[in-house]
Design a protein that fits this description.
This protein is an alpha+beta fold. The protein contains three helices and 14 strands. The strands form three sheets. Strands 1, 2, 3, 4, 5, 6, 7, 8 and 9 form a nine-stranded antiparallel sheet that branches. A three-stranded mixed sheet has the order 12-13-14, covered by helices on one side. Helix 2 runs antiparallel to helix 3.
């Protein structure tokens, strides 16, 4: 998002909605998607839809700062109302005052929305690709990456992440340092061990 803003010389904004509803019910305000280089906020249009953020396993509401699944009930659909529709998305619920724009509607964190059905079981642990994205793309030195989950010759499940350095990274010491710290950062975020390769 920051690279897009720099390229176009303009803030980036976003809407969130669903074709099932025929409406958009969340939007970024004039602060944009990445205000000051940080995750922004989707403000929910509370008068358009009731949006519950629930733990997908327990069905209970999540607390501010926690992740959950949006469950939507529309207020404006008359012919085909939608009642407690499960989105399958994974969002982080934020308190109404999370944005300093002054709007006090319910909100989610922008840039972190993922899908629950994207989850992959690796070494017995549920891992979402967005968690790996968070680690890899938090570094401007990394341009792109790919992952592989496989069974090695000894019958053990292995996970490898291969990535490409940005062309602006030429210092071998910088590359070596990143190669050394990435496995720990990925382990801390996901709970499993990764092999990391350039």
């Amino acid at each position: 998002a920051q690279r897009m803003e720099e390229f176009w010389g303009s803030p980036l904004y976003d809407l969130y909605g669903s074709s099932q509803f025929g409406i958009c019910y969340a939007y970024t305000c004039d602060k944009g998607v990445v205000p000051n280089g940080k995750h922004g906020v989707y403000h929910l249009l509370d008068h358009v839809a009731l949006v519950e953020i629930l733990d997908p396993i327990t069905g209970q509401p999540v607390k501010y700062g926690e992740e959950g699944e949006p469950v939507i009930t529309t207020f404006s659909r008359r012919g085909a109302p939608i009642i407690r529709f499960r989105q399958g998305d994974r969002v982080r619920l934020l308190p109404p005052d999370a944005c300093d724009c002054g709007r006090l509607t319910n909100c989610w964190e922008s840039g972190t929305i993922a899908r629950y059905d994207d989850m992959i079981k690796m070494k017995g642990v549920n891992v979402w690709p967005a968690a790996i994205d968070d680690v890899m793309f938090s570094r401007s030195e990394i341009d792109e990456y790919g992952g592989r989950v496989f069974i090695d010759d000894q019958g053990r499940e292995q996970v490898t992440v291969r990535f490409e350095f940005s062309q602006k990274v030429a210092d071998p010491a910088v590359k070596q340092r990143i190669l050394e710290v990435l496995p720990d950062e990925l382990h801390e975020r996901t709970g499993i061990h990764f092999e990391v390769e350039e």
